[in-house]
Amino acid sequence: MQHDTASTPLRQRPNASSRAPLSSAIPTRDPKAPISLYIHIPFCVHKCHYCDFYSIVDRQDRQEAFTHRAIAELTAVAALAHNPTLDTIFIGGGTPTLLAPHLLAQLLTTVESAFALTDHTEWTIESNPETLTQPIGEVLERSKVNRVSMGAQSFNPTHLKTLERHHDPASVERAVTIARAHHIPRLSLDLIYAVPGQTLPEWADDLERALAFNLDHLSAYALTYEPNTAMTARLLRGDFEEAPDELEVDMYNHTLDRIRRAGLDRYEVSNHAKPGLECRHNLAYWRNRDYLAVGPSASGHIAGTRYKNTPRLDDYLDFSDEGFAPIVEHEPPDPKRSLMDALMLGVRTREGLDAPSILTSADQLHRRAELESAAQSCAGSGWLTTTDTRWTLTEPGFHYADRVARELMGALVTDDETP
C-alpha cells in the first residue's frame, strides 16, 4: 500500500542519475529512527477496473529479468542506507505472489541478507486468493514473512464481476487455509463496499464471511472512482450509477458496529484490527516516517525528501545506476509540504494529530492562528475534537475525514498562493 503526495515534482529523464535524492537524504536522517521498506511488484493476472496502482498483465516473460533487477536495486539501496534495521517491510503491487516461487524466494532471501531484521520486524506480502498456492506458502514459511494481506474484495460473484475481479469466492477460504497451514501468524483481508448495485444485506453478508475467518485485521474501503481507470470510464459512459451517499454511510456504520462486536477496533478511516495487531507499515505512512522504496513506481520518503521510481517496467529494466532505479519525481525537504502531509495523513487515524507538534511547525510558517482557526471551525461542525495535546476526529468526523484534512491544509495556504 503506497501513497503519492507529490505535488510539484522535479522530473528527470529516465536515464538521469537517480542517486541524488537518496544520497542527499540518508546522511541527514536520525539512524535511531524507525525505517521501513516498500517493494513494488507490478505483475497482475488482470488489471482490475477500479485499480490506479501501477500494474501490468503478466505474461511471465519478464519475471526473471524483473527479479534480478529488483535484487540489484535492493542491494544498492541497502548499502547506501548502511544496511539499516527494518521496522516494517511491505511487498505490494500488482500481485507479488504471482511471481514464480523460486523467483519470490530469491527476492525474499535478498531482503533478509541485505537488511537487518529482528523478531519484531513486521513483514507483509500482498496476495490475491488464487495466487496463494501451496508452493508460494512453502516459500513464505521458509522466509521471515509474518503477515499476509489478501485482496478478497467481495464474496459475491456479481459484484466481483462488476469490479472485474477474476477469482472464485471459494478461493479465499483455500488461501486462508494455506496461509495458516504454513504458519503465517497474521492475516488481513481487503473488502470493497458501495459497489454499484450492492445492497446493505449483501455487504453485511460479505462482512460475515470475512469475519468468520477470525481475522486480526480487516480493511474495508468504499469504492473510489479514480481518474484514468476503467471503472471511472464505465461510470462516465453510463454503464452503472454510483451507490447513493446514504447507502454508503449505512454500510460504513454497519461495518463499525459489526467489527467492534468481532473484537476489532478502527484505527484509521478504513482499517480495523484487534488491539496491538494494527498494520505498523500503514502507520509508518500515516505518521510520516521514513521508508525506502524499491521497484517500478515505488515511492520513498527519507528525512523529508520524497522520491518516486519510474512507473514504467521497460525503463526500470533498461536502466541501472549501479543498481539504483531511475527517479521520475523528487521533492527535497520542505517545511510546508511536510506539515501538509502530516495533517493529511495523521488526521485520518484514531490517534489523530499531536497538537503541540503541528502547532510548532505552523509557528515556523507563521500560520499558527490560521491553523487553530481551521481546527476550531471543524470542531464547531462536530467533526474534530481539539485539546491542548491532540486533535482527533469525532465519530461523525470520520465521515468527513477528507474535508477536515482539506480545511486544515488550506489554513497553510497564503493569499498569494493557489489552494
Model description:
The chain has helices spanning 20-25, 63-80, 101-114, 134-142, 157-162, 170-181, 200-211, 230-237, 245-261, 280-286, 313-318, 335-346, 355-364, 368-380, 401-410; strands spanning 35-41, 43-44, 56-57, 88-93, 122-127, 147-153, 186-193, 217-222, 265-268, 271-273, 290-294, 299-302, 305-309, 327-331, 353-354, 384-386, 390-393. It has 15 helices and 17 strands. It folds into 2 domains: 20-286, pyruvate-formate lyase- activating enzyme; 334-413, Arc Repressor Mutant, subunit A, CATH 1.10.10. It has a 9-stranded mixed beta sheet, with helices on both faces. The radius of gyration is 21 Å and the shape is globular. It is an alpha/beta fold and 419 residues long. The longest helix has 18 residues, at 63-80. A hairpin with a 3-residue loop joins strand 16 and strand 17.
